[in-house]
Fold these 4 entries.
Entry 1:
Amino acid sequence: MSTLDLDQSSIEFHRMIARKDVVGLELLTTAEAVQAHLAAAAKQCTGEVLAVYACGFPSQSVLRGSAERDFGAVARGARMKVCWQHSMIASTRLNWYVDAARGLGAEIRGCDQSPHRFVIYDDVVFFPRDALAEDEPGAVMTRAPAAVEYFRAQHRFYWSGGRPVAAAGAADEADEFIESDLARDIVRLLAQGEKDEVVSRKLGISLRTCRAHVARIMKVLGARSRFQAGVYAARTGLAGDSSRRR
């Protein structure tokens, strides 16, 4: 998805909303109306749930409502692809959502700030009324092809440039492991140039488990080889004192 394609789609979208008599553009002026139409669209969704969340972190009640609708669609077979703004991804308040979404098979990526916040259920789009340069609360619901394609283009653009989000808490688990006695023993042996077979035998673990741990350590340290991982660990003191050898 190129910036040129996105710009052309944007032109078509703004031409459409500039028309006062456009068919398929419905203003939802109350929170109750918004929630009712969102729930109905999600319940009927069987293909895709596409969303971009930006411009401020939602309240936990709003987030739970969104999760209930969207995860329900995923459970019925819909594919879910969500872009969250980087600043939101960094918040621990999103951890439970990320874990639950990934557990259901949904895909989540972090992206740069988007000019719009929106969600698409198959062929119906919901977006804030402020996209129409209005200050009133509520949302806009539309099935108009030009609008749907515009927001699909928006989603493709940010999705293609986004980065997959790791499972919530993965970084903490990695930090905990890398500081464990087992990890220290492994990197100490790597720093000595020992092969996986020797490491597994000396530490009394299976070769398969040893290799899995080595791969994990290399990833955490950003090393491109086993030996480099050992060197990095030695330089940072992670390998520990040689007197700790078992």
Note: The first helix runs from residue 3 to 18.
Entry 2:
Amino acid sequence: MIRVLLVDDQPLIRSGFRALLDLEDDIEVVAEAGDGAEGVALAKEHLPDVALIDIQMPVADGIEATRRIAADPALAGVHVVILTNYGFDEYVFHALRAGAAGFLVKDIVPEDLLHAVRVAARGDALLAPSITRKLINRYITQPLIAGAGTALKDLTSREREAVALVAHGLSNDQIADRMVISPMTAKTHINRAMAKLHARDRAQLVVLAYESGLVARGGS
């Protein structure tokens, strides 16, 4: 059973999402919150698999709630998915950087919402290649972070190669083709790199690849 926490300051949005999710045999909404601070408290209480969190809320917004959840080792199993009305914007960028696993636009069709919840619960990537490319475009304008490259020293050469390909927006199947390995082996390289780098998800790998200089700005 996939346990879901809903965090949104609009009761109508929460009730609509809950009605849809509760129809599924493998999904259970365990709690609802109307602001980010309450959402973090309920995440600690219920330990959901997925937290669907709105960006703009009172008390603590979605970015701050995401940051608090990502920083708490006890909540390492909680996968945050950001809800937004506007698609990929500056708020979403900061939420992904804070530790969100991905994001959904609120007018998403029901089938895509259910698929996204299941993908997030497995700990798989919830960023489409087009969104990864937008992250890349955002990051190539940023300065390198001093000392970030030392985080990569424990990666094998194949793991570094896989991380670089993730940062270029490639899917697991595309990475497998490029590295001439199976998709399962590609996923294993990525998962091991995430564990070594303490990255919660694919978005965090993109962040690290560009902050460390593993991937050149604006190029290969």
Note: The CA atoms of residues 16 and 28 lie 14 Å apart.
Entry 3:
Amino acid sequence: MTAPATTDTPPVEPSVTTSGDRRPAGRYGVLALTAAVVVGLLLGYAGGLLTPTLTRPGDSSAEAGFARDMTTHHAQAVEMGLIAFDRGTDPEVRQIGGDIATGQQGEIGTMQTWLRSWGLDPTGDQPRMAWMPDGTGKIENGLMPGMATPEEMAKLRVAQGRELDVLFLQMMIKHHLGGIHMIQGILDAGGDDDVRKVAQIMKNTQQTDLTNLQNALKRLGG
């Protein structure tokens, strides 16, 4: 959701594949993206409400575990995307960051609505990844597959210029690879058809993101 652009300073620059215009995001553009993230979350909630509730996955089900763990996984991606949009210097990096932030925030809304409609708490008492065969073995230093460490996030938050652009691309590629691995876990588990449909859309979107991220990283020589 963006305000009409003026002829002098567009609030959000269009996605381009060249690196000629490397102005950082203006405050107005950041506020517009923040509003879009909120709208995405609300639309996600609305989408989740459309999921039929003829069957309700239980508290220890794969569906509940996936919704809880992927919410946490997505939340980190949203923060990374907002950082890239706010302070990235490459227009394509900023566009990718904004798209990931808004898209994954909407999916968080959908997953949290599932949990409420199933009568389940947003967090459960199961270990991370316990819903996935050998999932707990995928945890490294308390982090789910692909997630950045606190030290890596701290570095991203203070990075500037090309360093930030390249670091974001590298971290998000790793993040998406881990996310796709988790999504495949719920697809392989069977179960709720509507959850699997949304999960397949997530997988398709992240695979497309990966192509764009890898191409941008190659272009920037990262």
Note: The first helix runs from residue 27 to 49.
Entry 4:
Amino acid sequence: MGQPQPEPLTPLAEDWQRALAVVAHPDDLEFGAAAAVARWTGQGKEVVYCLVTSGEAGIDAIAPERARVIREEEQRLSARLVGVDTVDFLGLPDGLLEYGVPLRRAITEVIRRHRPDVVITNNFRETWDGAYTLNQADHIATGRATLDAARDAGNRWIFPEQLTGGVQPWNRVREVWAAASPLSRHGVDVTDTFAAGLASLRAHDAYLRGLGDGSFDPEEFLEGISRPVGTRLGVRHGAAFEIFPLGLH
């Protein structure tokens, strides 16, 4: 008996103009979603990055004060390689993020300021594979808070202190997209922008050199993610997303 075939993915809608990507750490978007960002900026769309932390606890051999500077520099370079000019850092503590009102408040402010049509975050399910490969606490907290903040942003009575200097409630986030979720049912063809996504991951040079024994191969890793997704889309390389529709509210 043959192996069951994976469920095909539905192509993501691309009838939008502005997206805000909110993730916990520098490099989070580059582990799979950056090639999709390159596709969208190549279409003339605007994508803004928001990094909740600066990844300062992510390199064992480099003290956090120095690592913060390095990782912010690498993230800005990485973003430029996929057509992203604006990168916000919220400066919250790496490795210690907690889901709750303070995190929702911080992300709500960014959504109200940038007024996106779509908000992108990383997988915030308990695992990466739907089984055994555990997700990281910062990713889970950030994704959950981002989903809530996308709704909070439209309610003028939630965090009303932010509504100064021309900032208004923003209730036009259509959907939140969680990249690389094990429950993804949608995807995007990144065949033509795979190389840009790879270059953006390689830009995190100091971080990658600090991984394990130093033998990490960015191209092999991204191929291992994008090829199976591409098969489900009927293309060579793909990026998968779980969609959370919000509608206008």
Note: The chain has a mean pLDDT of 96.
